[in-house]
């Protein structure tokens, strides 16, 4: 998949990209994620903001934001959680048998929904990439990451808004 | 766990009687999901117990919260849009013809909830008359302090602006404020929000040219309905207009109003000498 | 009255959700995975009353699709509703300026879709909750 890189914004070499911490807080990321869950996964699907270790096998989906702030929004959960999440998202619209492609697609769409709303809070204009899915998300710069860890149906899930690793 | 058929039927009948909205069979899961938070607030662990408690001792506050949890009427902007269409097509021209150019139009949104109704009115008037900000004042009241504060702030979540607010009005009258949206300052200046219990003597307000009293009367018994309508009429101009909810009427409750059909909706006007 | 909708989104999960919601309101639906596929459906002669349009899609995005539809007078009766996670004020203005009638921000509930269809006069039956 290709990612548009020209945002139409011209920057001078002396311009420094804004620090993420000045633009976005964990509370906002949590609120955006909760709204995505309540609306799309189910109205009584609460996210409990408690950190817990992710299982050994995980699945991640992510979307890139390119603009005055450039980085990635990453959603990560256990591989089994991803399957359960897909079923919950599709509810009565789910096919008889869930294929891997269904799971990747659903996880990618959740990253797109959270990413689009994160982008709207950041300074614009910026461009949202198409979602990608995999076992290893792109590396981020730990010092410039806003991460929210929650439990959904008792299972750990994280949402990270991260600047690219240098 | 699914709600038993009798309990579901009781909820269906309540919602239909008080909001005219039909809960289709098979919506037990929806009733469960929406009423569970209310049950927990009462310290009960499931919806069955909650329904039994309210059935055995119905209180207007509880039945109101059930209907509100299941209808979401009040949280969408133009849902049941006819009373708003009538405002700009009939009521506003009539009032402009009857009032002097310097007279301020006073509108009351009673039971304004989180503010969608008063701001819908403000947007419509701002789009319909160039001098709305200086010519119109909108009083928004609610019994809940939290709702009054939310109305005053004029901020709405992403999910709230998705509910029936036409996109052209969204971009014209609201701006992003972090993860929320905020109503433009000129509209917020038109709206004054305050606490008010309709079932008690009303504060000095008005006199109002237009009153929106929608989906409120349904929660009260007949004598209280009559008392509310009488007090509302005392705060209205003699040629004012009253809008009620789709399932509500003054007929058979208070005969000092005349009903005027406006397209697909009705307004009520004080009868002269009544 | 049968009301028809073309649901355009690159996510099959989202296509299923939007399609399922619209069918619940009595719609007959077809799906397309991007703007180009949607144009192919229209050129085939299957003209819906409503198109729901995602913004970010491969091959042809939603805004390009809106522009393409608006450039063809034969398609002027189509009602175009964006359904997308693009939620900046400026993006909504751009879509409306290009000719979209309505805009639903993801995430949305079935109630939000129903409210918008009611505004557009495209709610076929008195949809209950």
Automatic annotation (TrEMBL), chain A:
Instruction: Report if keyword ATP-binding is assigned.
Output: no
Keywords linked to the UniProt accession? Chemotaxis
Read off the Pfam families from this record.
CheX
Q: Which SUPFAM superfamilies match?
A: CheC-like
Gene Ontology terms: biological process: chemotaxis
Q: Where is the Chemotaxis phosphatase CheX-like domain?
A: 61-134
Organism domain of life: Bacteria
Q: What is this protein called?
A: Chemotaxis phosphatase CheX
TrEMBL record, chain B:
One of its Pfam families is CheR_N
PROSITE patterns documented for this protein: CHER
CheR-type methyltransferase domain location, by residue? 1-273
Report keywords, A-Z.
Answer: Methyltransferase, S-adenosyl-L-methionine, Transferase
* CDD domains tied to this protein: AdoMet_MTases (cd02440)
Q: Which reaction does it catalyse?
A: L-glutamyl-[protein] + S-adenosyl-L-methionine = [protein]-L-glutamate 5-O-methyl ester + S-adenosyl-L-homocysteine
Q: Which SUPFAM superfamilies match?
A: Chemotaxis receptor methyltransferase CheR, N-terminal domain (SSF47757), S-adenosyl-L-methionine-dependent methyltransferases (SSF53335)
Instruction: State which Enzyme Commission number(s) the record gives.
Output: 2.1.1.80
Biological process (GO) annotations held by this record are: methylation
What molecular function terms (GO) are annotated for this protein? protein-glutamate O-methyltransferase activity
- This protein's source sits in the domain of life called Bacteria
Q: What protein does this entry describe?
A: protein-glutamate O-methyltransferase
From TrEMBL, chain C:
Q: Which superkingdom, per the lineage?
A: Bacteria
Instruction: Name the chain's protein.
Output: Two-component system, chemotaxis family, response regulator CheY
Domain Response regulatory per the UniProt entry, residue ranges: 4-121
Residues with 4-aspartylphosphate modification: 54
PROSITE patterns reported in the protein's UniProt record: RESPONSE_REGULATORY
Q: Which UniProt keywords apply?
A: Phosphoprotein
| UniProt-listed GO biological process terms | phosphorelay signal transduction system
InterPro entries in UniProt = Bact_response_regulator (IPR050595), CheY-like_superfamily (IPR011006), Sig_transdc_resp-reg_receiver (IPR001789)
Asked if the record carries the keyword Phosphoprotein, the reply is: yes
- Per the record's keyword annotation, is Isomerase included, yes or no? no
């Amino acid at each position: 998949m290709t990612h548009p890189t020209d945002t139409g914004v011209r920057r001078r070499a002396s311009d420094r990209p804004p620090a993420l911490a000045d633009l976005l807080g964990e509370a906002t990321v949590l609120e955006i994620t909760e709204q995505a869950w309540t609306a799309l996964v189910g109205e009584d699907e609460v996210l409990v903001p408690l950190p817990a270790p992710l299982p050994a096998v995980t699945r991640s989906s992510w979307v890139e934001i390119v603009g005055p702030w450039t980085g990635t929004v990453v959603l990560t959960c256990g591989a089994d959680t991803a399957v359960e999440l897909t079923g919950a998202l599709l509810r009565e619209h789910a096919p008889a048998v869930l294929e891997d492609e269904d799971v990747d697609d659903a996880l990618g769409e959740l990253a797109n929904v959270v990413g689009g709303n994160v982008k709207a809070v950041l300074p614009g204009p910026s461009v949202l990439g198409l979602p990608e899915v995999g076992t290893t998300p792109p590396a981020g710069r730990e010092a410039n990451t806003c991460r929210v860890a929650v439990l959904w149906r008792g299972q750990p899930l994280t949402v990270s808004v991260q600047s690219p690793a240098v | 766990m699914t709600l038993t058929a009798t309990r579901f039927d009781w909820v269906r009948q309540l919602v239909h009687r008080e909001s005219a909205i039909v809960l289709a069979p098979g919506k037990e899961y929806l009733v469960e999901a929406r009423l569970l938070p209310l049950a927990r607030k009462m310290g009960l662990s499931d919806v069955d117990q909650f329904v039994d408690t309210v059935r055995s001792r119905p209180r207007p506050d509880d039945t109101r919260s059930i209907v509100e949890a299941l209808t979401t009427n009040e949280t969408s902007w133009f849902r049941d849009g006819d009373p708003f269409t009538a405002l700009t097509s009939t009521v506003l021209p009539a009032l402009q013809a009857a009032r002097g150019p310097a007279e301020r139009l006073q509108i009351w949104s009673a039971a304004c909830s989180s503010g969608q109704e008063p701001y819908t009115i403000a947007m419509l008037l701002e789009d319909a008359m160039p001098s709305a900000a200086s010519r119109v004042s909108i009083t928004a009241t609610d019994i809940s302090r939290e709702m009054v504060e939310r109305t005053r702030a004029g901020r709405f979540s992403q999910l709230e602006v998705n509910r029936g607010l036409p996109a052209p009005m969204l971009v014209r009258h609201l701006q992003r404020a972090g993860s929320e949206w905020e109503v433009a300052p000129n509209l917020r200046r038109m709206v004054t929000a305050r606490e008010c219990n309709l079932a008690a003597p009303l504060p000095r307000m008005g006199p109002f040219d237009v009153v929106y009293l929608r989906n409120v009367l349904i929660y009260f018994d007949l004598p209280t309905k009559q008392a509310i309508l009488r007090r509302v009429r005392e705060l209205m101009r003699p040629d004012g207009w009253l809008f009620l909810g789709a399932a509500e009427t003054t007929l058979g409750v208070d005969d000092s109003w005349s009903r005027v059909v406006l397209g697909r909706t009705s307004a009520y006007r004080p009868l002269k000498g009544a | 009255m049968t009301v028809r909708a073309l649901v355009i989104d690159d996510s099959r999960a989202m296509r299923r959700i939007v399609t399922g919601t619209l069918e619940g309101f009595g719609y007959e639906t077809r799906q397309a995975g991007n703007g180009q596929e949607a144009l192919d459906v229209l050129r085939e002669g299957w003209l819906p009353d409503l198109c729901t349009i995602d913004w970010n899609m491969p091959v042809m995005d939603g805004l390009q699709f809106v522009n393409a539809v608006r450039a063809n007078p034969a398609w002027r009766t189509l009602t175009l509703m964006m359904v997308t996670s693009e939620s900046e004020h400026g993006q909504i203005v751009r879509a409306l300026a290009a000719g979209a009638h309505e805009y639903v921000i993801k995430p949305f509930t079935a109630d939000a879709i129903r409210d918008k269809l009611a505004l557009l006069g495209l709610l076929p039956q008195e949809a209950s909750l």
